[in-house]
């Protein structure tokens, strides 16, 4: 027998009991050749191109699921940031493009399509300005389109003008989708140092340096890691790091195998495997539970940041060893609404926005799926985004803000989206004003990279 | 384009059945190239995923021991036209455990179909049967 009993049992346990699955296979499609002066023609080109490459996406993924018996939770598509090919368009025309994306996504049978995006960390063109202003309209009139805007980078600094615009866009999106608990904001991410090959929606897009078409895969197994941590028992922290690494190594290898197989079916190049630990509201699929199993009483306790840092670092180290194609975010996600353990910690009053902000300095993304009171001023949201960008810019890492100023809701209320987006208790945010700072506008210059004390 | 051993064997069988005694190098070449074209067009031979895919599954069964477990499982495997490559079985106290490596390349059923069939047997015999592709094991446990 080429495999011993232990190995067989371990594999069965991971897939059957601990919910190891492939979180997403995301087909990246370039739209750069879809530009046209006439919006109707461009719209048609976008629709046809997504259909041409993507029509078999769900079918192929399902075939691979059948072949290997490992479930692929989400099949998705990302496209070139739309502000690039359609730079000449006005606000209404951009919304038309969003509706074409929405229609194509529906046609090929996927739940989300991402790439309604712009990269404006240094400054913005007229087209990018229009595109950003079109976001509330686009997200409120479509179901499947996800949007992201990059407003800062370590090389360019922090574009405060863009942050101010984005905080208005977030407020407006919340208002336009108020009858669905401001769900539009759950599909809108503000980034710093955005990766161009991230397969995880809502922040995914098909970067400008990517090929015509590419297949990226995101794996996930908080349940598997949780069990590995529990099995280590009272071992010291190096033993714990070792246990996490071994587990991540194995699931990364399986993830890459599945990704390559789906890419081969499509006959398109395989891009990257994103080894992020992405939680879902399902029982046992929680990052918070891992942190608690590591030893903190609840998320938010002193020590949480250190535990998360170690988890994140172990994930990266093992992933890099297991695959030469690691990319995207590749770390631990800490969204609030999508993680039952985080939701509970917030409800118990143990987890505040300030602690979450500290945690984002060591995790792979940022303030994610956090509901705040609907009357939070746009300038306060701008301050929050600026803080998050500062962490990203100075530490040379990706950070992001996906915050929901839930229209008409106050602290203690709940916004409930169901499904993967989960539910979020509205958290309190400091009422001190950031207005005079953020309203200065302009750009926080790029940081120096030496004398790093 | 790379062929697995199994695919090459299929090609050879096609060539033999068409040519019989009259084989000559030119004839073999034309028959084989036709078979390869068909394979590409219909994705029959090539639809096995990556060229280093083994087409084997690992079947694990365990539960309270009772007569007829192996017989029920192996019967179903033979009905599906699968080939057992390795089998390791142990009775621990009253507990039955078995790991089997099965080649499913020649079967018309895919892993999911076989899983469903085995699920029925498992329910009837009140045991657990898990089936997974060998590629997953290789990826996870072998460098």
Structure description:
The complex is a heterodimer of chains A (453) and B (143). Chain A has a domain at 23-192: Anaerobic Ribonucleotide-triphosphate Reductase Large Chain (Alpha-Beta Barrel). Chain A is 44% helix and 18% strand. Chain A has helices at 5-17, 39-54, 57-68, 91-108, 126-141, 160-176, 222-232, 237-266, 287-294, 304-322, 340-347, 353-360, 378-395, 435-438; strands spanning 21-29, 72-79, 113-119, 145-153, 157-159, 188-192, 213-220, 270-274, 367-373, 399-406, 414-418, 422-425, 443-444. With 143 residues, chain B is an alpha+beta fold. Chain B folds into 2 domains: 5-42, no CATH class; 56-141, ACT domain (Alpha-Beta Plaits, 2-Layer Sandwich). Chain B has helices at residues 5-19, 25-42, 69-79, 111-125, 134-141, and strands spanning 56-64, 83-92, 95-103, 127-133. In chain B, strands 2-3-1-4 form a 4-stranded antiparallel sheet. In chain B, strand 2 and strand 3 (95-103) form a beta hairpin. Chain B is elongated, with a radius of gyration of 19 Å. The model of chain B is unreliable at 42-51 (pLDDT under 50). Classes of the chains: A alpha/beta (453), B alpha+beta (143). The A-B interface holds A 1-3, 5, 7-9, 11-12, 15-16, 64-70, 250-251, 253-254, 256-257, 260-261, 264-265 and B 49-50, 53, 58, 60, 86, 88, 97, 99, 101, 110-112, 115, 130-133, 135-137, 139-141.
């Amino acid at each position: 027998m080429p495999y011993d009993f232990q190995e067989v049992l371990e594999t069965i346990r991971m897939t059957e009991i601990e919910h190891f699955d492939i979180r997403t296979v995301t087909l990246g499609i370039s739209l750069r050749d879809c530009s046209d002066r006439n919006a109707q023609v461009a719209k048609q080109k976008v629709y046809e191109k997504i259909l041409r490459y993507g029509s078999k996406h769900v079918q192929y993924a399902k075939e691979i699921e059948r072949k290997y018996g490992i479930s692929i939770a989400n099949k998705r598509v990302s496209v070139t940031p739309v502000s690039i090919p359609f730079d000449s368009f006005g606000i209404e025309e951009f919304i038309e493009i969003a509706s074409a994306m929405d229609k194509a996504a529906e046609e090929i049978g996927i739940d989300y399509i991402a790439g309604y995006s712009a990269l404006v960390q240094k400054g913005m063109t007229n087209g990018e300005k229009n595109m950003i202003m079109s976001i509330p309209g686009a997200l409120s009139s479509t179901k499947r389109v996800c949007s992201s805007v990059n407003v800062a980078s370590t090389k360019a600094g922090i574009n405060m003008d863009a942050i101010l615009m984005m905080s208005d866009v977030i407020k407006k999106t919340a208002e336009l989708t108020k009858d669905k608990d401001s769900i539009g904001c759950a599909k809108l991410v503000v980034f710093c140092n955005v990766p161009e090959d991230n397969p995880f929606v809502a922040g995914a897009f098909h970067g400008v340096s990517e090929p015509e078409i590419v297949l990226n895969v995101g794996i996930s197994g908080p349940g598997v890691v949780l069990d590995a941590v529990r099995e280590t028992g009272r071992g010291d922290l190096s033993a714990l790091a070792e246990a996490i690494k071994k587990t991540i190594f194995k699931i990364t290898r399986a993830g890459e195998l599945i990704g390559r197989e789906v890419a081969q079916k499509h006959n398109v190049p395989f891009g990257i495997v994103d080894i992020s630990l992405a939680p879902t509201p399902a029982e046992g699929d929680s990052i918070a539970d891992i942190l608690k199993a590591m030893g903190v009483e609840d998320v938010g306790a002193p020590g949480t940041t250190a535990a998360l840092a170690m988890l994140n670092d172990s994930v990266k180290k093992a992933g890099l060893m297991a695959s030469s194609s690691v990319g995207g975010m590749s770390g631990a996600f800490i969204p609030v609404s999508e993680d039952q353990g985080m939701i509970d910690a917030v409800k118990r009053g143990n987890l505040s926005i300030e602690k979450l902000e500290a945690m984002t300095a060591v995790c792979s993304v940022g303030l994610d799926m956090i509901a705040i009171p609907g009357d939070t001023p746009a300038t306060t949201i701008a301050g929050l985004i600026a803080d998050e960008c500062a962490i990203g810019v100075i530490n040379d890492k990706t950070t992001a803000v996906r915050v929901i100023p839930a229209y008409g809701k106050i602290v203690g209320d709940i916004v409930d989206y169901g499904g993967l987006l989960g539910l979020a208790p509205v958290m309190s945010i400091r009422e001190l004003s950031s207005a005079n700072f953020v309203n200065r506008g302009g750009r926080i210059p790029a940081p120096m990279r030496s004398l790093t004390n | 384009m790379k062929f697995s051993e199994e695919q090459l064997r299929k090609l050879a069988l096609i060539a033999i059945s068409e040519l019989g005694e009259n084989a000559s190098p030119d004839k073999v070449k034309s028959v084989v190239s036709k078979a390869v074209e068909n394979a590409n067009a219909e994705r029959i031979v090539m639809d096995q995923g990556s060229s280093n895919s083994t087409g084997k599954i690992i079947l694990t069964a365990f539960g309270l021991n009772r007569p007829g477990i192996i017989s029920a499982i192996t019967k179903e495997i033979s009905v599906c036209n699968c080939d057992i490559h390795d089998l390791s079985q142990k009775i621990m106290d009253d507990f039955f455990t078995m790991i089997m490596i099965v080649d499913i390349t020649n079967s018309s059923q895919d892993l999911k179909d076989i899983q469903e069939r085995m699920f029925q047997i498992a329910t009837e015999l009140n045991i657990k049967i898990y089936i997974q592709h060998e590629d997953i094991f290789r990826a996870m446990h072998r460098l």
